[in-house]
Amino acid sequence: MHCRSLCLVLATVACVLIAAPAWGADDAADPPSQTPRADGAAASERADAQALVDAGRFEEAIVALRPLLEQESVDGNVLFLYGLASLEASQRPGRADDDREILLNEAIGAFHLMLVEAPGLVRVRLELARAFYLKGEDGLARRHFEAVLAGGVPDEVAVNVQRFLEEIRSRGRWSFNAGFALAPDTNIGSGSDVRTIYIPVFGQPLPFQRDAAQLTTSGIGVSVWGGAEYQVPLAERWRLRAGGQAARREYEGSQFDQLYLGTHLGPRWLVDGNTEGSLLASARQRWTGTVPDNRELGARLEVARRLTPRVTAFANASWHDRRYRVQSHLDGPVWDASLRGSWVVTPTVRADLSAGYAREEPEQVRARSRSRWLRAGVTVILPAGFTVGGGGEVRWTDFEDAWFPHTPTGEDRADRTQSVHLSVHNRAFTLFGFSPELVAVHEERDTNAQLYDYTRTRGELRFVRQF
Predict the structure, then answer these.
(1) Residues 6 or more apart from 254 whose CB is under 8 A from it?
(2) Tell me, what DSSP letter sits at residue 393?
(3) I need a surface site. Which of 72, 102, 171, 275 has the fewest CB within 10 A?
(4) Do the beta carbons of residue 181 and residue 462 sit within 8 Å?
(5) According to the model, what pLDDT value does residue 277 have?
């Protein structure tokens, strides 16, 4: 492993970890007041509402709490009681579906508002996870339940949370994702900015000047993506997964436009309470510019196992037969395998580390390659509604032949690509369910093949919908 490349990944992760606040379990035991001190009348009304909640009279508690929510300063305990009362009231037998949905949204809104200002409140995060679970938004529920397990909760709470997680794994549900972004890019086509190249002529390298039009192209694009999956229960431990994904990126003109469509279908096996696996048939189609570029048919294997309440391991492998519309010399199989670990360090800090291997075997010998990569990242939830993330990747790609006249005589092409990324997400602001996220990526490729090295910095102002 190249020392400089490894240091790049580790230094990026370390910088983000240093920025993480120290949220302790003791700090998050109870929802704190958001005002210095409530006056006597408000304290009395809050105590009355608490008594109603304790007595199971949740609808009456909601009525009693609403005037307190309309005040200029709202006590954090009032928000918590209102969220808890709305959550419990939503589960009354005979409750109409529309009313139930409204009450769950009220509960989610109250808990969300508290966590925006104080993301280390473990009890509040637990109730938010439960609200998402009852609403059927399993992806969000699972993420918050996992954060709760990292908060040093009592054993009996941890056992209940594990039951929720097991139920989420076993029930069939729709899942969705969607987003759109503005995407400025300093080097859209990942082109080299080298003006002079050297081509051997009768054994002597002679300089040639490239046309300026062949150099890098910058621009601002628009990106849109979305996907959906449904899992159909087949038996106690078996599900059928069916889903699809689409992504579109456009720049001025059509040369660098891209369109991707993918779909998958196959069984999912819940081996035990901590282990699962899926074997999926997969089809993918890509367009470059306005015409089809290539299509792939194959399969992928996915395995996940929860090693501890905080650590989950994921293994993936896939094989596809790739066929090009025009460049038939690039037709051939592609396959890859990866291993990833996800560690919920605290309720507000999550770390990921992954490594992988890929191989492409097209008909053209010089295009055949193998790649290895190492990737690391950290996300940190901060007060005031911000989530920051950072990470890096190093990828080594070796080709099976020389790239004459781009590589030195007798040398096969070898690339090393490294990148770092930073992101800032504001979860406090939403518009029609979409919240803003700013992502910046800097990427560099070093290679012994002329015209294939590049430097690229791109960004995205994303608006992401969480379902």
Answers:
(1) 289, 290
(2) E
(3) 72
(4) yes
(5) 97
How many Å apart are CA 398 and CA 427, to the nearest integer?
41
Buried b (16+ CB within 10 A) or exposed e, 299-321: ebebbbebeebbebeeebbbbbe
Please tell me whether residues 166 and 179 are part of one structural domain: no
Residue 7 pLDDT exceeds 50:
no
Pairwise CA distance, residues 262 & 244, whole Å = 5
Q: Dihedrals φ, ψ of 152, to 5°?
A: 65, 40
Q: Cβ(98)–Cβ(326) under 8 Å?
A: no
CA angle 360, 241, 234 (to 5 degrees): 140
- Full residue range of the structural domain in which residue 158 is found: 24-170
Distance CA 123, CA 101 (A): 22
Residue 58 lies in a domain: yes
| pLDDT tens per residue, range 31-72 | 444 444 446 677 888 899 999 999 999 999 999 999 999 888
Q: Could you tell me the two tokens for 449?
A: 């093949």
441 and 321 within one domain: yes
Q: Which of 424, 449, 417 is nearest to 438 (CA)?
A: 424
Q: Per the structure block, which two tokens stand in for 104?
A: 């769950």
Q: Looking at residue 431, what DSSP letter applies?
A: B
CA–CA separation, 380 and 350 (whole Å): 7
pLDDT above 70: residue 143: yes
| Domain identity same for 83 and 192 | no
Q: Is 417 exposed, middle or buried (0-12, 13-18, 19+ CB in 10 A)?
A: buried
Report how far residue 370's alpha carbon sits from residue 382's, in angstroms, rounded to the nearest whole number.
40
Map tokens 């109870």 to a residue.
30
Total-model pTM: 0.84
Residue 446 parent element (H or E) = strand 434-447
> Residue 158 is part of a domain; what is its CATH number?
1.25.40.10
- Based on the fold, state whether residues 128 and 64 are members of the same structural domain: yes
**Closest by alpha carbon to 264, among 242, 285, 284?**
242
Within 42-167, strands assigned E span none
From residue 124, alpha-carbon distances to 11, 114, 397 in Å are 33, 8, 47
Sign of CA dihedral 228, 184, 195, 394: negative
Contact 16, 390 (CB under 8 A): yes
Are 156 and 62 in the same domain? yes
Same domain? For 334 and 404 the reply is: yes
Q: State whether 158 and 181 are in the same domain.
A: no
Closest CA to 236 of 173, 302, 174, 170: 170
Q: Find all residues with CB under 8 Å of 183, minimum gap 6, and list them.
A: 220, 221, 222, 223, 249, 458, 459, 460
**Whether residues 214 and 330 fall in one domain:** yes
